[in-house]
Design brief:
With about 220 residues, this protein is an alpha/beta fold. It is built from seven helices and nine strands, in the order E-E-E-H-E-E-H-E-H-H-H-E-H-E-H-E. Strand 1 and strand 2 form a beta hairpin.
């Protein structure tokens, strides 16, 4: 379960304080696929970052239930949020955030090393085939196209079987064929693991795969 309780979040834009979310509330049940839909600047990435514990609400709270325990992300220390994120979150960033000095295989293995889940290595690497990346295991990010880098980021996010998968514009750099493949894979993997999947997107095609839709406005 993910629940936003009257969450507000502000940022400084130069010298001007801008409110991105104002008393925003919603609830997502375990195992649900939800789409966050809205124009640029509407707060989609902010919502993902709040769920991941990368940002903290200025007021209100984000509550996450894992294994029968409800966590208050605002009430957690930075170290506790980092541990929660490492163990329970798979994040597909809009700009990939691959480590340039690691190969494709090493990038995908990284969450397994951080969480001690090396037993999942074969499964994680086999996912590269499903994403059309067979033969690219020893390549470095700079040797890949933008679409290939995005698919590596997806494989890395899914590697450790996280309880919550966050995807920021996961098909933004993909053609129609690969976009369909990626969305189907994300939904299939989330369903198989009983994970909650939150998709931030401009795409009605992507949003149409979700059980629940949340519209955000600037």
């Amino acid at each position: 379960m993910i629940r936003f309780e009257s969450v507000s979040k502000r940022f400084l834009d130069g010298d001007v304080e801008r409110t991105v979310l104002r008393r925003y509330s919603f609830e997502v049940s375990d195992g649900t696929t939800v789409s966050l839909v809205g124009p640029s600047g509407s707060g989609k990435t902010t919502v993902l970052n709040l769920i991941a514990g990368l940002d903290v609400a200025d007021s209100g709270d984000v509550l996450v239930e894992l294994n029968g325990v409800t966590l208050s992300l605002k009430g957690m220390s930075s170290a506790a949020r980092a541990r929660y994120r490492r163990q329970s979150i798979g994040y597909i960033f809009q700009f990939f955030n691959l480590i340039p000095t690691l190969t494709v295989a090493e990038n995908v293995r990284l969450p397994l090393e951080l969480t001690g889940r090396r037993d999942l290595e074969a499964e994680a690497l086999s996912r590269l085939d499903a994403l059309g990346l067979a033969g690219r295991e020893d390549s470095f990010p700079e040797q890949l196209s933008g679409g290939e880098q995005q698919r590596v980021a997806i494989a890395r996010a899914l590697a450790h079987r996280p309880a919550i998968i966050l995807a920021d514009e996961p098909t933004g750099n993909l053609d129609a064929e690969n976009a369909g493949r990626v969305v189907d894979l994300l939904c299939e993997q989330a369903a198989a693991a009983g994970a909650t999947l939150v998709l931030a997107t401009h795409s009605e095609f992507v949003a149409g795969h979700a059980h629940q839709r949340l519209d955000l406005q600037r």
